[in-house]
């Protein structure tokens, strides 16, 4: 009976002792301003965590989360108006990261850590900045392996055609990962045709040569930004399967998608909290982007 009573009261006592340091710091708790954007929410959820779970984890890390969701109608002053003496960090969604300079200028003089996600954005040298960037390497490696299998099974149907942007070092590195994984797994590496569309203006059509290659392909890998939609339209009346970096495609195309690169993969909560708690964080962190199977995945390998 004594041991039972001990166990009955022991755990509540331990729990209270555990909470005491947390509760005692509530008055001067650090605040993290998380700036979401409504555009991301419309196309499949925020890249930044915004749920109760993240708030609780931040609470036990000694922080309080303040969320704001923005669009073009939200003025910079509305964002910076939420920054006070307790604010230690400002985390910006990819869309807001592009406008980080305006937010930094409006908050000048405040000791803040700016955490920019999704894209690199030039900030003044005196800004304490951390970048969290998506790493698509694993997703592209998987696409290369699956494409190689498909090419070998269907070599009589034509080439595997990949259109891609190659205007930056990151984009060129990504295409090398895809190419290497395809070459390593395929018995017919010559079937992979790579078309760099970065020289074509965004509002211009693909060249006639690239169009012909696309129409005669047995499989498409679309990493060409806006030109991906042109490639899909060119092959709209065919059953050519596709790997896409765009998850939100019209319903009429969905039955052709083998897999997606999920560019909406959320930044891991643990990574954000680790950066915030670190005294001297690294300038750049990366997180893995997911590969998601599409409607045509099983059909492609029957």
Entry keywords:
alpha/beta, Rossmann fold, six-stranded parallel beta sheet, six-stranded mixed beta sheet, 13 helices, 12 strands, 23% strand
What does this structure look like?
There is one protein chain. This protein has 302 residues and is an alpha/beta fold. It has two domains: 13-135 and 265-287, Rossmann fold; 137-262, Rossmann fold. 39% of the residues lie in helices and 23% in strands. It is built from 13 helices and twelve strands. The protein has helices at 2-24, 38-42, 52-59, 76-80, 94-97, 100-106, 137-153, 169-185, 208-215, 227-234, 251-254, 269-277, 297-300, and strands at residues 30-37, 63-70, 87-92, 113-117, 128-135, 160-164, 192-196, 219-223, 242-244, 257-262, 284-288, 290-293. Strand 8, helix 10 and strand 9 form a beta-alpha-beta unit. Helix 7 (137-153) runs parallel beside helix 8 (169-185). The N and C termini lie far apart (65 Å).
